[in-house]
Design brief:
With about 180 residues, the protein is an all-alpha fold. The chain has helices spanning about 15-30, 35-45, 50-60, 75-85, 90, 95-105, 110-130, 140-155. Helix 1 runs antiparallel to helix 2 (about 35-45), helix 6 packs antiparallel against helix 7 and helix 7 runs antiparallel to helix 8 (about 140-155). The chain is globular and about 50 Å long. The chain starts with 13 loop residues before the first helix and ends in a 23-residue tail after the last helix.
């Protein structure tokens, strides 16, 4: 038996597939992939057997910086403001995080990213509630729990990303101020 496999011939794990899926989702959200192409690549990613199979799927996509990548570790004040952005969303919906994003987000990219995430969650939830004529309001109990979890992540200096939300407020790209 030959034990010298090329790296591209190694079998992939679910975690490696998930990384490619996340990269495809980000490219689709950024408008770099059309819907049909996104669906095709997602299918290929989920059925990929080797690292070479996965590499082909994202070969033409520019390396996007990871969402949680921040040049410097957040300060204690940044962590407190980011946690406040998640926690204040419970009573104020998207208004509190939006204010923190506009005021403190200019000073700290970490605070801006976390506040933008909270704004996106609560705008998504508000849209669901409107479209479902109020039935979506039942999701608020779940989002309160998620907001508290996100606040604890922010206090620890880790980035938190809510699943299944519309990302209407974009995070700043490194090196671009706005």
């Amino acid at each position: 038996m030959n034990s010298s496999y090329a790296v591209g011939d190694l079998r992939v794990s679910d975690a490696e597939r998930d990384g490619v899926v996340e990269r495809l989702q980000d490219a689709y959200a950024d408008g770099r992939l059309e819907h049909d192409e996104f669906d095709t690549r997602m299918q290929l990613a989920m059925t990929a057997k080797t690292r070479g199979d996965l590499a082909v799927i994202t070969a033409d996509l520019a390396s996007a910086p990871r969402f949680g990548a921040v040049d410097e570790a957040p300060t204690g004040e940044d962590r407190m403001l980011a946690a406040a952005a998640h926690a204040v969303a419970v009573p104020t919906l998207f208004v509190g995080p939006l204010v923190l994003m506009l005021v403190s987000g200019k000073r700290s990219e970490y605070v801006r990213r976390q506040a933008a995430e909270a704004v996106n969650l609560h705008v998504t939830l508000l849209l669901i509630t409107i479209v479902t004529f109020g039935v979506g309001g039942l999701l608020y109990a779940v989002t309160w729990i998620l907001s508290i979890i996100a606040a604890f992540h922010a206090l620890a200096g880790r980035t938190f990303r809510y699943p299944w939300i519309l990302r209407l407020v974009k995070e700043p790209r490194p090196g671009i101020s706005g």
